[in-house]
Amino acid sequence: MPGLYGPFTFSEKLLQRIWARREFDQGLARTADGRPVEILEPGRWNRLGGPDFLGARLRLGGVEVTGDIELHLHAADWVAHAHSADPAYAGVVLHVVLFPSAEKFTPGAAGRQMPVLALLPLLQRGLEEYAEDEAMEALASRPLARVPAVLAALDPGALAALLARHAEQRWGQKIHFARRRLALLGWEDACHHAALEVLGHRFNRAPMLAVAAQFPPAQWMAGQVDLAAAWGAQAGRWHLHAVRPPNHPRLRLSQYAAWSAARPGWPARLRACAMTWPVLPAAGLAGVGGLRRRHQLPALRKKLADEICASTVGGTRFDTLVCDGFLPLLAAETGAELGGLWQAWFPGDLPESLPPVLRALGVFDAPACPACHGAAQGLIGWQLAE
User: Fold this and answer.
1) How much is the pLDDT for 346?
2) What is the pLDDT of residue 288?
C-alpha cells in the first residue's frame, strides 16, 4: 500500500497479530449484518494448516458461540483459497477481514452462512502505524553484527548525512501519524491516548489504548478513575512476561493517575509551554553537545517533567514520551519547528543492541557528540529501509 515515504506491506500475519492482541475498538464491533460481537477469548493462534485461530469464544448478537476464526485481508479471499471445500474449516464461526465489502455473509461448508467482521473501521491507528510497529518488533530481534561493517566504510560526513536523512524521514512520519490522531480525537484526547500508549511501551500499548478510550482524560484529572477497575477492564490482555518491575502496566497506570490528578489540564499546559521552547536547527551529529549546552536542554527536560508530568515518569520512558508523544503532537497542532529539538533530545527507549553500534561508529561519542534521539532514529530508519 502507498505510505508517506513509499509503499509499505500489510500482511495477513499482521492482521492476525491485531486480532490476537485485540488492538481495535471492541465496543463498536458489529458483523456485516449488524449483530454486536463480543470477544470472550480470541482463540489459540494456529501457526500450522487450517483456521488461523482455534477454539475462540464469542458472543454474537447476545448468543455465545465457540469455534474457529479465519482472517483475510479481503472477504473474497475465502473463496479464492477454496476454504468452503476444505473440512478443516468446517468449525469456523466468524470470518474476520480487514477491508469491508458488500458481502454480509461468507459461504461456508454445506451452504452455511458465516458472519463477517471487518476490522478496518475499528482500528485505533492507521494501517501504516501498525506496519511500522511490526517492522520495529522485527528490528528489535534482528542481529546488528553487519551494521558496523557496512556503515564504517562511510567517511564521517557521509555517515552523518545518511543518519540525518533517515532521521528527518522518521520525524516527518511521526508528525504524519500525529496529525491523524489529532483529526480523530482532538488535542486533549490525542495527548491522553499518546501518553497512555507510550506508558504501555511495546507489549502493553493495545490495552493501554483501550483504557484511554474507556476512561476519558477528565476522569483522570478529577481523580475519579478506579485503578482496579481500569486494570480489570483489560483483564487477560496485559502482557506481563519478561516485563521489568518499573514497566509493569499496573504501576504505569498508577503513575498516570498521579500525574493527571497533580497536573489537571496538562495538555493545555503542554501547548502553552511549547510556545516558549527554543527553535533548534538540525545541526547534525557533531553539533548536538553544543546545542544542548546553549539551549540548556537538561534544565528544560527537568522543567518539562515537573510542569507536565509532576515528575511521576522518569528515565528513558519520559524521553520516549517527549519524542514519540509530545513533540510530534505539538508540531502537528501548532506548526512549530520542533524537528531540531526532537533530534537533539535524549534518546529514550531503544533496542539494547543499538547504542553499542552507534558508539562503535563514533556517533555516540560524549561529550562532543552525546547520545541523542536523532542519531538513534536515523539508524533505525536506515535499518528499516534496508
Assistant:
1) 95
2) 87
Decide if 132 is inside a domain: no
Question: Does one domain contain both 64 and 180?
Answer: no
244 found inside a domain: yes
Task: Based on the fold, state whether residues 75 and 159 are members of the same structural domain.
Answer: no
Model pLDDT, residue 118: 97
Q: What is the DSSP letter of 30?
A: B
- pLDDT, residue 313, reads 96
Residue type, 270: L
Query: Which structural domain, as residue segments, surrounds residue 90?
Result: 2-122
Q: Which residues of the chain have pLDDT under 70?
A: 2-6, 139-146, 283-286
Q: Contact at 8 Å (CB) between 371 and 364?
A: yes
Residue bearing cell 482500528 = 123
Predicted TM-score of the model (pTM):
0.84
Does one domain contain both 339 and 204?
yes
The answer to the question of residue 130 being in a domain is no
Average pLDDT, the chain: 90
Measured CA to CA, the distance from residue 242 to residue 96 in angstroms comes to 30
Tally of CB atoms within 10 A around 51: 24
Q: Is 38 helix (H, G, I), strand (E, B) or coil?
A: strand
Per-residue pLDDT of 24-45, as tens digits, reads: 988 899 999 999 999 999 999 9
Q: Are strands 53-60 and 37-41 parallel, antiparallel or unpaired?
A: antiparallel
- Same domain for 161 and 96: no
Measured in residues, the chain has a length of 386
* Domain assignment present for 369: yes
For the chain, the 3-state helix, strand and coil shares in percent, each to the nearest 5, are: 55, 15, 35
In the numeric block, which cell numbers belong to residue 268? 493545555
**In this structure, are residues 193 and 181 in contact, taking their beta carbons and an 8 Å threshold?**
yes
pLDDT for 10 equals 87
Half-sphere exposure of 188 (CA within 13 A, CB side): 12
Q: 131 CB contacts (<8 Å, ≥6 apart)? A: 3, 8, 9, 10, 14
What DSSP designation does 60 have?
E
